[in-house]
């Protein structure tokens, strides 16, 4: 191999994390910093879950694999564990300021998709896991406007076949059950001001009396629920309570 070819190969070499996150179907994942992964505190409780923990961790921190490595049986075994290990570390990373910033950019770019409900008006969604344990459920999407959970677009076509051949085949534990709540608490501007408007059925433009009343009732309930939700968020993220000054009695003045 010539010196020029060696230099070109070195330039094209990327990290395992960058390679892993660029795979089709891994768009929901962000690139976790190496420093965060190396911190023993962020690895707490994970080692006992993996048989080849050290090998998987080393793979995550190394460069991307060579094409010939992908054909090795040992690589496949370690890679699956590295995949899950990275996912669990990823679930912790996206709750940090740095991770929230990365996920907010994906949210604003609608990488996670939009709510399938027409009345939500193409509201951007957030990834969520139905469990913090591995192999329980695939990742789902949470809509901040209607506050409901849906199957992502990449899973719908294969949902009836138990996600076999599914493009978006990420485990829900890679994001965790708390991520949407933590994200919205730290970014109140991304919380929709109003809930979804209910669909009001009509016949030739005229509202149906009984159905329209039910629709209006649901709309009022949704609006009240959304206002209560906003107030709770503001109370949680608002200014601290002012502690009243302690009154000084006449006796304490005389004692001094």
From TrEMBL:
<dbReference type="InterPro" id="IPR016149">
    <property type="entry name" value="Casein_kin_II_reg-sub_N"/>
</dbReference>
<keyword id="KW-0808">Transferase</keyword>
<feature type="region of interest" description="Disordered">
    <location>
        <begin position="235"/>
        <end position="256"/>
    </location>
</feature>
<dbReference type="GO" id="GO:0019887">
    <property type="term" value="F:protein kinase regulator activity"/>
</dbReference>
<dbReference type="InterPro" id="IPR035991">
    <property type="entry name" value="Casein_kinase_II_beta-like"/>
</dbReference>
<dbReference type="InterPro" id="IPR000704">
    <property type="entry name" value="Casein_kinase_II_reg-sub"/>
</dbReference>
<dbReference type="Pfam" id="PF01214">
    <property type="entry name" value="CK_II_beta"/>
</dbReference>
<protein>
    <recommendedName>
        <fullName>Casein kinase II subunit beta</fullName>
    </recommendedName>
</protein>
<dbReference type="GO" id="GO:0016301">
    <property type="term" value="F:kinase activity"/>
</dbReference>
<comment type="subunit">
    <text>Tetramer of two alpha and two beta subunits.</text>
</comment>
<dbReference type="GO" id="GO:0005737">
    <property type="term" value="C:cytoplasm"/>
</dbReference>
<keyword id="KW-0418">Kinase</keyword>
<dbReference type="GO" id="GO:0005956">
    <property type="term" value="C:protein kinase CK2 complex"/>
</dbReference>
<comment type="similarity">
    <text>Belongs to the casein kinase 2 subunit beta family.</text>
</comment>
């Amino acid at each position: 191999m010539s010196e020029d070819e060696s230099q070109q190969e070195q330039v094209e070499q990327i990290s395992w994390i960058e390679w892993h996150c660029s795979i089709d179907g891994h768009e929901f994942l962000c690139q976790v910093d190496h420093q965060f992964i190396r911190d023993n505190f962020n690895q707490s409780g994970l080692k006992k879950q993996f048989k080849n923990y050290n090998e998987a961790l080393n793979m995550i921190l190394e460069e991307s694999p060579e094409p010939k490595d992908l054909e090795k049986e040992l690589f496949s075994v370690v890679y699956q564990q590295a995949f899950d290990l990275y996912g669990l570390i990823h679930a912790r990373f996206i709750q940090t300021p740095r991770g929230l910033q990365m996920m907010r950019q994906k949210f604003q770019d609608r990488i996670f998709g939009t709510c399938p409900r027409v009345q939500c008006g193409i509201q951007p969604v957030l990834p969520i896991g139905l469990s913090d344990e591995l192999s329980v459920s695939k990742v789902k999407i949470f809509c901040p406007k209607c506050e409901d959970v849906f199957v992502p677009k990449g899973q719908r076509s294969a949902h009836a076949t138990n996600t076999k051949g599914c493009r978006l085949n990420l485990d829900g534990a890679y994001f965790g059950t708390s991520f949407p709540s933590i994200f919205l608490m730290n970014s109140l501007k991304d919380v929709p001001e109003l809930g979804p408007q209910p669909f009001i059925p009509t016949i030739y433009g005229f509202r149906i009396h009984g159905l329209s009343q039910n629709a209006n009732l649901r709309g009022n309930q949704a609006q009240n629920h959304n206002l209560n939700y906003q107030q709770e968020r503001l109370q949680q993220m608002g200014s601290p309570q002012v502690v009243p000054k302690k009154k000084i009695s006449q006796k304490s003045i005389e004692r001094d």
